[in-house]
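Supplementary notes (optional reading)

For those who missed the lab, this is the record we used. Protein: Four helix bundle protein. Length: 120 residues.
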Amino acid sequence: MKKFSFESLEVWNDVKLLTKDIYIITKSFPEEEKYVLVSQLRRAIISVSSNIAEGSSRMSKKDQAHFYHIAFSSLMEVLSQLLISVELEYVRESDVEKLREKISNIGYKINSLRRAALNR
């Protein structure tokens, strides 16, 4: 089966694993958050992988960089929502710290992709 270019990107695969983590962690959120914070967190993390995939398919380096920028912004949205989830006592701070480390590494890789696209 043919693979698309984004599937071979290490960062896209890292985000795919983080997506699984986010889905697992949000399963324990209260029912009243199902259509609010749970939905928002899941949409934001899906946006990260989607924008990396879309950016990798763009012909223009400027377009690529734009989608990588959006991916990074969505990643920061995920972090923000996780920090709020700690304050609301939906998740433990120690769990978010583990995710924060993954987010930091992914953010670095996304920014590297963006810089590489702009410098070509």
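If you only remember one thing from this example: Residues 61-87 form the longest helix (27 residues).
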